[in-house]
């Protein structure tokens, strides 16, 4: 088994300090979080990048909202929400 020092001499082997690393950051949209919190317990329609959901908001966190529709719970990432419409 080659050691780290012998591996560094091998061609085509990535060096630990040369490996690219990507970090995806989704900033918290505090206005959307506050809006969702104000609608907690109410039925809403959420348009997401994947389609439309309607149901009751049962929980809100900084990065996701939990929606209950027909006894099924959906966890929706806030960064995927396009628009929110309360049902009255």
From TrEMBL:
Q: What highest taxon heads this organism's lineage? A: Bacteria
Protein's recorded name: DUF2642 domain-containing protein
Q: Which InterPro entries match?
A: DUF2642
């Amino acid at each position: 088994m080659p050691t780290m020092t012998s591996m560094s001499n091998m061609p085509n082997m990535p060096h630990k300090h040369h490996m690219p690393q990507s970090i995806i950051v989704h900033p918290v949209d505090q206005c959307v979080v506050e809006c969702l919190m104000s609608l907690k317990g109410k039925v809403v329609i959420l348009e997401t990048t994947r389609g439309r959901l309607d149901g009751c908001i049962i929980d809100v966190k900084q990065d996701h909202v939990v929606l209950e529709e027909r006894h099924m719970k959906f966890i929706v990432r806030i960064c995927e929400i396009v628009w929110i419409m309360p049902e009255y």
